[in-house]
Amino acid sequence: IGKVAYQLDIHTFHSFVNIVTGEIGLDSKDNSLENFNQNFSEYKEFLSPKTALYLDEFQDVFQSSMRLIYNLLNHLKIRKIVAVGDDDQIILDFIGADVKYFDYFWEYLNRNENGKKAEYQLLENYRSDSKIVDFANHFGNSIEYRKKRNRLAIPKGKKERGELKFIKVEKCQHLYSTVGKEVVKINSQNKNSTIAILVNNNIEALTLQSFLNAHKIKAHLIQDRERFEWKNLLEIQRFIEFLDRETEFKTAFQKAKEKAFSEFQNSKNLDKLKKLFPLLKKWKVKQNLKILCFLLMRSRTLFLKKTKIITKLLLQRYTNQKVWNLTM
User: Fold this and answer.
1) Pairing outcome for strands 80-83 and 52-55
2) In this structure, which long-range contacts are made by residues 1-10, counting pairs with CB atoms below 8 Å and at least 24 apart in sequence?
């Protein structure tokens, strides 16, 4: 889309609230969205007019995010609304996501858009073979409340039938060996095969992973993170929050440090936070106090011997500011 891309604002609901309020560290577990909605009148003057609103993954909308959507539509000069979602893919039901919000939104459009609306269903499945699609259609019929009214189909000309196998396990304790042996069998027939296993809980996932690893199959959990980031530690996130609230440049680091040390004086991770400050003491960026902190905390080499050299190179590469000293 060329230069038009520079005119787009792309956010999650929480990152949008983050930008408007200037807060950080918001996530789906807190009540920041509801607080924002309750105080919307205080923030609406900071919102710039938009001509279009595109809502992706609409199936994961919940009460507070739905209310935020209504607030934005009622305040901004929106001329075009597009909501895209698949009610078969709801994953945030534990925080209130529900297919009913499809209906609520449709009713809202009926009241406010004078009937100028349209619904499109994308029913062709390009990912799966026909046997799997047939099973999905059969299983979908058992769902009591479902938005899809028509059957899924595969594109014309696609010939692969695929394979679908049902295995009945008489006793729960036999589940791991039964599933594990089936995976071992598939892997022996095709070493290049990629297999995904869906289970009910973490215990089952860990047990199956151990079973497969014992049979020399490289299995890993889907939530495994290959890269650890220091900024994800709560102690460091809170330090950044404290730093963000300080207005006096010369005392900002010292005050933020004291507040963080006081709050986490009994934390096992306090030593990780303390190791930051000898590095922060030498190199600062006058224009933005936080940039150095984020660069450091994103680095896995933070506590290596060459960290100081790496830090200085990062500063010189990512800023145009002269590296200078500040007594803390």
Assistant:
1) parallel
2) 9/50
Strand, coil or helix: 252: helix
The H-or-E segment that residue 220 falls in is none
Are the CB atoms for 175 and 203 separated by under 8 Å?
no
User: Whose CA is closest to 175, among 214, 139, 203, 217?
Assistant: 203
pLDDT (0 to 100) of residue 279? 57
- Neighbouring CB atoms inside 10 A of 90's CB total 15
> In this predicted model, what pLDDT tens digit does every residue of 79-135 receive, in sequence order?
889 999 998 889 888 888 999 999 999 988 888 766 678 888 888 988 888 888 899
CA dist., res. 248 & res. 227, Å (int): 34
| Number of CB atoms found within 10 A of residue 181's CB | 13
d(CA 204, CA 181): 15
* DSSP 8-state secondary structure symbol assigned to residue 289: T
Q: What percent of the chain has pLDDT over 70?
A: 75
Residue 270: C-alpha distances to residues 47, 237, 292, 295 (Å): 39, 12, 19, 19
Are the CB atoms for 233 and 279 separated by under 8 Å? no
CA-CA distance, 305 to 26, in Å (whole number)? 34
User: Which distant-in-sequence residues (6+ apart) come within 8 Å of 135 by Cβ?
Assistant: 164
Q: In this structure, are residues 307 and 279 in contact, taking their beta carbons and an 8 Å threshold? A: yes
Task: Tell me how many degrees the CA angle 19-321-20 measures, rounded to the nearest 5.
Answer: 5
Predicted confidence (pLDDT) per residue in 279-323, tens digit: 555 544 443 445 455 545 444 444 343 445 444 544 454 444 443
Q: For the range 13-18, what are the long-range contacts, defined as Cβ-Cβ under 8 Å and sequence gap of 24 or more?
A: 13/64, 13/65, 13/68, 16/68, 17/68
| Alpha-carbon 236 to chain mean position | 20
Cβ contact 221:212 at 8 Å: no
Give the side-chain half-sphere CA count within 13 A for 14: 10
Distance CA 29, CA 52 (A): 28
The structure tokens listed for 327 are 């007594």
Question: In degrees, to the nearest 5, what angle opens at C-alpha 294 toward C-alphas 21 and 264?
Answer: 80
**Cβ–Cβ < 8 Å for 75, 37:** no
